[in-house]
Write a structure and sequence with these properties.
DUF2063; 3 strands; 284 residues; 2 domains; mainly alpha; three-stranded antiparallel β-sheet; Putative DNA-binding domain-containing protein
């Protein structure tokens, strides 16, 4: 068999796996009937197995979103996503990388739905962003091996600190109370039924503005709810790192302005917060 013909067969087979379309005899150049199974049934076994395995992987990465949408709706979104963005990487870690973007682009406009539905149209996308951030925090290189601060004088600066945001710390801005929703969902999904521990299924989150920090400490991923000034600091740090900007006095003065604090008040807040933030690997 030539490489060209093999590649053609592989491409055809992959398209049939992803589409889930029934096999039509006139459009079937490769799959043959067997003694016990027609070609349509033989291919259907592979189609279902492949798609359901990828669905399980997506459920594992987005458990809170799966809980919120329910089995039927979540499966519909996942299969639509796989149709538009077929799996193309050897690592399943890459599978859900663009799921939040897919949910955003397929979301109807608020004018197309009732007002009570329109208020929650972006909730699935934002849930996916937070849960994808948790996957990235778990996978990215962290600061576990970096130098540990040995004394309080090293942690608490007398002037503007030289800190950075590790790759395991990701900022997500949302328009709902996803901090409490995800904590409740985690408890509900992990409940120990054998010991009688029971948690209520989380209710639909309230509408409110939040900035969340997804971070990893000692290889465990957590979520912190940031105060507005903390969000301003960490967002500015992220931007500075991306643009290779130095953390000079002017930088911190601009941060203080965005945080709506005086420079002295911001420095005082940093001195109170940094020991915990550094010791928990939120910054390094």
């Amino acid at each position: 068999m030539s490489e060209t013909n093999l590649a053609r067969q592989q491409h055809w087979f992959l398209q049939m796996m992803l589409s889930g379309n029934a096999l039509e005899s006139h459009a079937n150049p490769y799959v043959q009937d067997s003694e016990h199974f027609p070609a349509t049934s033989r291919l259907f076994v592979y189609q279902q197995g492949y798609r359901l395995r990828l669905l399980e992987c997506m459920q594992a990465e987005f458990p809170a979103l799966h809980l919120y949408l329910g089995e039927t709706l979540f499966s519909m979104f996942v299969f639509g996503y796989l149709q538009r963005r077929p799996s193309s990487h050897y690592s399943l870690y890459e599978l859900g990388a663009d799921f939040a973007d897919f949910l955003a682009t397929t979301c109807p406009s608020s004018q197309q739905v009732p007002d009570n539905v329109a208020r929650y149209l972006t909730l699935p996308q934002q849930l996916a962003e937070v849960e994808r951030a948790r996957s990235c925090a778990l996978r990215n290189a962290g600061c576990e091996e970096l130098k540990q601060y040995s004394s309080i004088t090293e942690i608490v600066p007398l002037s503007w600190p030289s800190i950075q945001l590790p790759a395991t710390s990701l900022i997500v801005s949302v328009g709902y109370d996803l901090f409490n929703y995800i904590m409740s969902a985690d408890n509900y999904l992990a409940e120990d039924k054998t010991h009688g521990t029971a948690y209520e299924k989380p209710k639909v989150p309230e509408i409110c503005q939040q900035t969340l920090l997804v971070y990893r400490h000692r290889y465990r991923v957590s979520i912190a709810l940031l105060k507005p000034w903390q969000a301003a600091v960490l967002t500015a740090l992220q931007s500075a790192q991306q643009n290779q900007q130095s953390l000079n006095n002017e930088f911190w003065y601009q941060v203080a302005k965005k945080a709506q604090l005086s420079s002295s008040a911001l420095l005082a807040e940093l001195n109170n917060w940094l020991p915990k933030a550094l010791s928990s690997s939120q910054v390094c």
